Amino acid sequence: MTIIGAGNVGTQLAVHYASQGASVKIYSSKPHLFKGKLAIIDSNNKVLAQGQPKLVTNSLKAAVGGSELVLITVPAFLMTATAKKLTPYLKAGMKVGLIPGSGGAELAFKDALAKGVVVFGLQRVPSVARLKKYGQLVVASGYRPSLYLAALPRQASEECCRLISWGLGMPCYPLASYLNLALTPSNPILHTSRLYRIFKDYRPGKVYSHLPLFYEDWDDESTVTLFKADAEVQALCQRLVDFDLSGVKSLKEHYGQVEVGAFSAKIRSIASFKGLKTPSLAVAGGLVPDFSSRYFRADFAFGLRVILQIGKLAQQPLPTCQSLMTWYESLPQAKPAEFSYASYGIKHLADLVAFYQR
């Protein structure tokens, strides 16, 4: 099996699969930094798992050749380029997993699907993971009790679940449709609501002397915006009557809190979120937003943008989600490429239904 992307989650996955006895190949832009065994530790430096990859290479052909399972962990904004380079090496029957599976990456592999490749995505990553030393060590915390995935075509979901469950040593269950992943209200509204709360007053030249921790200082104003966006996603799911979208759980249900104050307190209390900083850059006099962060580049342009485009195709208004995107588009930054259903020929609701019902 092959891991594409040797960052936080990619390293974590490589360790788990190697520790189970899988022959693991890793595609990395810096293979020379891998010296031997990889390890996962917890926040107390306890070793959770160890494993040694068979090969670490910067050659996609070498990384993918002979693999039945390919897991891709690159950011959403790199997925189109990755798919273009990778698809020539993919063969019918191979299984390509997108982790996580949101952000429109499934469309980037449309040509691979046409070749008979199975494309699946995890609804969420297995845990919070942070590299401690590239090519050697990753810190993981807050492992989920179970995982959920969806595959294209749908009938491959059970087999993909089996492969994930075996490699990670945790239960994995299939979702009825890949559209459950596209609409999962996780980072696309969680991160965007919080970024808006923190930086809504940002203007060129403004420097912050202090910024709150992203989760540990979570406040009620962030929750109010999030709840509005969350409700809009749920209304969109109800609108899409051609699909079973029961896997798109409200964040109120996901976190077990329905009141604003209790929800904010819950976010602040999650141990695996402790200490995570707001994406920012140090400049003379303080801090400014880090627009290159995945929180901006992926979660607006590829996360929230997917939800908004599905809403437009379904003729379902999403005013709070749109206001967050409008704010993002007003920021003084060079805008990266963003996801577009139309660029893949999906211009009407019927096109969307046809793609996701396969």
Description:
Helices cover 38% and strands 16% of the residues. It is of the alpha/beta class and 358 residues long. Strands 5-2-1-6-7-8-11-12 form an 8-stranded mixed beta sheet. The chain has a 4-stranded mixed beta sheet with strand order 4-3-10-9, with helices on one face. α1 (8-19) links the parallel β1 and β2. α8 (187-199) packs antiparallel against α9 and α8 (187-199) packs across α13 (299-313). The model has no long low-confidence stretch (mean pLDDT 95).
Entry keywords:
single chain; 358 residues; alpha/beta; 8-stranded mixed beta sheet; 4-stranded mixed beta sheet; 15 helices; 14 strands; 38% helix; globular
List the SSEs and their pairings.
Elements: E1 2-4, H1 8-19, E2 25-27, E3 38-41, E4 47-51, E5 55-57, H2 60-64, E6 69-72, H3 79-86, E7 95-98, H4 105-108, H5 110-114, E8 118-122, E9 128-133, E10 137-141, E11 147-152, H6 157-168, E12 172-174, H7 179-182, H8 187-199, H9 220-239, H10 251-255, H11 260-269, E13 280-283, E14 286-289, H12 294-297, H13 299-313, H14 319-330, H15 349-356
Parallel strand pairs: 1-2, 1-6, 2-5, 3-10, 6-7, 7-8, 11-12
Antiparallel strand pairs: 3-4, 8-11, 9-10, 13-14
